[in-house]
Amino acid sequence: MTPILPGATIGFLGGGQLGRMTAFAARSMGYDIQVLDPDAACAARAVASRTITAPFDDIAAAVELAKSCDVVTLEIEQIHPDVLDAVAEHTALRPGRAPVYIIQDRIRQKEWLHAQGFPLGAFVAAASAADVEAAVREHGACIAKSTHGGYDGRGQVRLREPEQAADAWEALGGRTCLVEKMVSIDYEISVMVARRPGGEMAVYPPSRNHHTSGILTWAVIPAVIAPEMSEKAQSLASAITERIGIVGLLAVECFVTTEGELLVNELAPRPHNTYHHSERGLATSQFEQLVRAVCDLPLGSTEVHAPSAIVNLLGEVWLQHEPPHTTHALQVPGSRLHLYGKAGARGGRKMGHLSAVGESAQQALGRVLESYRRLSPETIASFDVHEPVLARSTN
């Protein structure tokens, strides 16, 4: 295949923070950027030479984008399949339609993973409140999820008793949903894989992650886990990436249970919040890697140059009595502030992140959490920013 060289134009379906950060990387490599997003003030607008304001099911707008780009990629998977087909008729679409179609529906994704023999927790495709109730009776505590969207803890309901099924069904809109058995989690990790059109792959070391109410709180690399588990997770992510045939990035989120099982949680065909630290501590950031992959350039090294960590900044930071104490936060050695250029802070909305590097994963994590405490001391009670001891697990 012919590489798409600097000077060409990359189109993005989606102009959120992931598109913004990838666009910065692409700009530094000499590419032009165009974006399609429903929000006229989307985060990537400041980096793009052209922004088309249109919904993600607008075929005409997507074709307009495709005709002026040498390759189109995405930063959000909830793009209508007909739009993906229309784009592919006019320019290179990476990732392709097939992997996105599998991933964008949670039930379809789980059923595909199960059919391929990848390790999963128990799940049920519930077509009624009675199905939800039956799942809880069979599996005990469960979590019900909408099939589309619902990121960062939204579109999810936790159930511990069968009697909660009717309310959960209504809360999710009275539509078919995914019901998963809750597992006893020792820790959470993710693995990012990049893949070129010809099949070459680059696999990142696992990231260790922590969530609060379904929203990523912090992520750190190296993950400080047993080498055997690290290798197992990388092999699993590589196998999924190859089998699904994606071109671009695939983030594989996993649970490691208290029994030592490695289970796939979810897939994401794009840059991922858990690898924002790749900008600081890895030889090639996930954003530059996406540009390399979709343009069919040699993939960059995934070597860890410095332990690094991030903590998310939600809208709550800007909704306190006092504005964020930026000067105090940046006094922490190795810390850096990353804001996404979003207007209108609201609770739960990702507005940016802090990052830090250190001589060890523990030091990097401690630094970024200390930076957060200094930035917004009022939000600590509602956001789990205690510093855990990253002892190497035997799992």
UniProtKB/TrEMBL annotation:
<keyword id="KW-0658">Purine biosynthesis</keyword>
<feature type="binding site">
    <location>
        <position position="211"/>
    </location>
    <ligand>
        <name>ATP</name>
    </ligand>
</feature>
<dbReference type="InterPro" id="IPR040686">
    <property type="entry name" value="PurK_C"/>
</dbReference>
<protein>
    <recommendedName>
        <fullName>N5-carboxyaminoimidazole ribonucleotide synthase</fullName>
        <ecNumber>6.3.4.18</ecNumber>
    </recommendedName>
</protein>
<feature type="binding site">
    <location>
        <begin position="180"/>
        <end position="183"/>
    </location>
    <ligand>
        <name>ATP</name>
    </ligand>
</feature>
<dbReference type="GO" id="GO:0006189">
    <property type="term" value="P:'de novo' IMP biosynthetic process"/>
</dbReference>
<feature type="binding site">
    <location>
        <position position="106"/>
    </location>
    <ligand>
        <name>ATP</name>
    </ligand>
</feature>
<dbReference type="InterPro" id="IPR013815">
    <property type="entry name" value="ATP_grasp_subdomain_1"/>
</dbReference>
<comment type="function">
    <text>Catalyzes the ATP-dependent conversion of 5-aminoimidazole ribonucleotide (AIR) and HCO(3)- to N5-carboxyaminoimidazole ribonucleotide (N5-CAIR).</text>
</comment>
<comment type="similarity">
    <text>Belongs to the PurK/PurT family.</text>
</comment>
<feature type="binding site">
    <location>
        <position position="145"/>
    </location>
    <ligand>
        <name>ATP</name>
    </ligand>
</feature>
<dbReference type="GO" id="GO:0034028">
    <property type="term" value="F:5-(carboxyamino)imidazole ribonucleotide synthase activity"/>
</dbReference>
<dbReference type="InterPro" id="IPR005875">
    <property type="entry name" value="PurK"/>
</dbReference>
<dbReference type="GO" id="GO:0046872">
    <property type="term" value="F:metal ion binding"/>
</dbReference>
<keyword id="KW-0436">Ligase</keyword>
<dbReference type="Pfam" id="PF17769">
    <property type="entry name" value="PurK_C"/>
</dbReference>
<feature type="binding site">
    <location>
        <begin position="265"/>
        <end position="266"/>
    </location>
    <ligand>
        <name>ATP</name>
    </ligand>
</feature>
<keyword id="KW-0547">Nucleotide-binding</keyword>
<dbReference type="InterPro" id="IPR011054">
    <property type="entry name" value="Rudment_hybrid_motif"/>
</dbReference>
<comment type="subunit">
    <text>Homodimer.</text>
</comment>
<keyword id="KW-0456">Lyase</keyword>
<comment type="pathway">
    <text>Purine metabolism; IMP biosynthesis via de novo pathway; 5-amino-1-(5-phospho-D-ribosyl)imidazole-4-carboxylate from 5-amino-1-(5-phospho-D-ribosyl)imidazole (N5-CAIR route): step 1/2.</text>
</comment>
<keyword id="KW-0067">ATP-binding</keyword>
<dbReference type="Pfam" id="PF22660">
    <property type="entry name" value="RS_preATP-grasp-like"/>
</dbReference>
<feature type="binding site">
    <location>
        <begin position="150"/>
        <end position="156"/>
    </location>
    <ligand>
        <name>ATP</name>
    </ligand>
</feature>
<dbReference type="InterPro" id="IPR016185">
    <property type="entry name" value="PreATP-grasp_dom_sf"/>
</dbReference>
<feature type="domain" description="ATP-grasp">
    <location>
        <begin position="110"/>
        <end position="295"/>
    </location>
</feature>
<dbReference type="GO" id="GO:0005524">
    <property type="term" value="F:ATP binding"/>
</dbReference>
<dbReference type="Pfam" id="PF02222">
    <property type="entry name" value="ATP-grasp"/>
</dbReference>
<dbReference type="InterPro" id="IPR003135">
    <property type="entry name" value="ATP-grasp_carboxylate-amine"/>
</dbReference>
<dbReference type="GO" id="GO:0005829">
    <property type="term" value="C:cytosol"/>
</dbReference>
<dbReference type="InterPro" id="IPR054350">
    <property type="entry name" value="PurT/PurK_preATP-grasp"/>
</dbReference>
<feature type="binding site">
    <location>
        <position position="188"/>
    </location>
    <ligand>
        <name>ATP</name>
    </ligand>
</feature>
<dbReference type="InterPro" id="IPR011761">
    <property type="entry name" value="ATP-grasp"/>
</dbReference>
<dbReference type="GO" id="GO:0004638">
    <property type="term" value="F:phosphoribosylaminoimidazole carboxylase activity"/>
</dbReference>
<comment type="function">
    <text>Catalyzes the ATP-dependent conversion of 5-aminoimidazole ribonucleotide (AIR) and HCO(3)(-) to N5-carboxyaminoimidazole ribonucleotide (N5-CAIR).</text>
</comment>
